[in-house]
Backbone:
């Protein structure tokens, strides 16, 4: 015999409300155990609140008059308690917020699938237990980064849908929507690697600095680590980090290609993953030569999601698309290869995206070849940076290996 749905919903509501009340009691004992504190209810109180929310919702599911009336009464009761708490120098409304969440369990179990109230329950439990972690995280977050992220979300969620989806810019074979979408995607990938490195692995060693730094800027990571190698001597672990940053560049380019052009991503996957694996093997060899010291590594503390950077990237993206289209029309495949090699000594992301998103009258193999040549010449640039900023003792080894990877990449690009 199957149970009635109303009974199941009632049991779920009561169970979740009771467990939240117990968790809130534990939270009070752990963080607010001072004697004399006045609290808003116990586990039983929150259980009754959840039960009342379910009952009064079921009585009138159309106008919700009783449900709203009880909610107002509960809010007034909390207001009386809150005024007393303010007199004691306390101003937290966390118990009231938890009460509102518990009061919503009943309607949620009726109106939504089980995963919705279950998710709310899990989030309440998680947030109550995550107070120390959240305090440490909020203390280490740069408010300027949050402002930048907010602006980027505004441009992505509000401006992006409003942009024309047709080609309205003269001499550019791409719509404004796709152009800005490319900026959003590449910025998102870069920002993800930046956040992981800064807030999850801020001081975990030079090798991890190279790994995560390479996900958003292998060039900047190379410069920072090379400078460190020059100041501290020829450190094998720094060499490993520099090589790892270049290895991550290959993986990053495959991911970017996968977002915009699956066919090209498939063609790039084998050579680029092979080169990335070779680089990581070389890095692992250097990593075994010497253990990491206790010296704190420098962090590449440059937010890749700055709006100025995003607009500059959009401009370079449009410029590279114009140049690519011009070179293809007048100089063909040989001209494209020369352009690819030259572009590698700058920021290759705009050029790569122009190849992935543009509509050109060339085969995919030529586009794959151009991307590989650009990546290879960019490695030569990083090799020069490693040697320049690291000196002969600090930068010779990573410069040689990165240059070798670059030459191999260019060779495979010309061979395709």
Residues:
């Amino acid at each position: 015999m199957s149970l009635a749905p109303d009974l199941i919903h009632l049991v779920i509501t009561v169970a979740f409300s009771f467990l939240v009340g117990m968790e809130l009691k534990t939270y009070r004992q752990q963080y607010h155990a001072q004697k004399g504190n006045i609290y808003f209810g116990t586990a039983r109180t929150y259980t009754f609140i959840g039960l009342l929310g379910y009952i009064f919702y079921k009585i009138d599911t159309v106008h919700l008059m009783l449900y709203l009336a009880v909610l107002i009464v509960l809010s007034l009761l909390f207001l009386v308690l809150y005024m007393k708490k303010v007199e004691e120098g306390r101003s937290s409304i966390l118990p009231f917020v938890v009460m509102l969440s518990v009061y919503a369990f009943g309607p949620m179990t009726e109106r939504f699938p089980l995963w919705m109230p279950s998710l709310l329950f899990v989030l309440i439990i998680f947030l109550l237990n995550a107070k120390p972690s959240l305090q440490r995280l909020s203390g280490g977050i740069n408010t300027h980064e949050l402002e930048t992220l907010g602006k980027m979300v505004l441009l992505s969620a509000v401006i992006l849908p409003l942009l024309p989806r047709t080609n309205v810019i003269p001499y550019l074979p791409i719509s404004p929507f796709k152009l800005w979408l490319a900026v959003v995607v590449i910025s998102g990938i870069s920002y993800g690697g930046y956040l992981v490195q800064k807030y999850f692995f801020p001081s975990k060693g030079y090798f991890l600095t190279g790994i995560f730094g390479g996900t958003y800027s292998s060039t900047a990571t190379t410069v920072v680590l090379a400078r460190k190698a020059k100041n501290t001597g020829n450190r094998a672990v720094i060499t490993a980090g520099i090589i790892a940053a270049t290895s991550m560049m290959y993986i990053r380019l495959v991911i970017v290609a996968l977002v915009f052009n699956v066919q090209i991503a498939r063609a790039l996957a084998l050579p680029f993953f092979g080169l990335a694996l070779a680089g990581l093997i070389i890095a692992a060899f250097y990593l075994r030569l010497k253990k990491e010291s206790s010296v704190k590594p420098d962090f590449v503390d440059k937010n890749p999601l700055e709006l100025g950077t995003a607009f500059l990237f959009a401009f370079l993206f449009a410029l590279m698309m114009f140049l690519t289209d011009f070179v293809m029309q007048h100089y063909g495949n040989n001209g494209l290869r020369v352009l690819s090699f030259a572009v590698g000594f700058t920021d290759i992301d705009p050029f790569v995206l122009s190849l992935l998103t543009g509509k050109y009258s060339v085969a995919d193999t030529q586009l794959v070849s151009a991307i590989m040549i650009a990546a290879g010449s960019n490695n030569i640039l990083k090799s020069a940076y490693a040697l320049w900023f690291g000196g002969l003792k600090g930068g010779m080894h990573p410069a040689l290996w990165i240059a070798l990877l670059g030459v191999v990449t260019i060779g495979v690009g010309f061979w395709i």
About this structure: The chain has two domains: 5-135, 142-415.
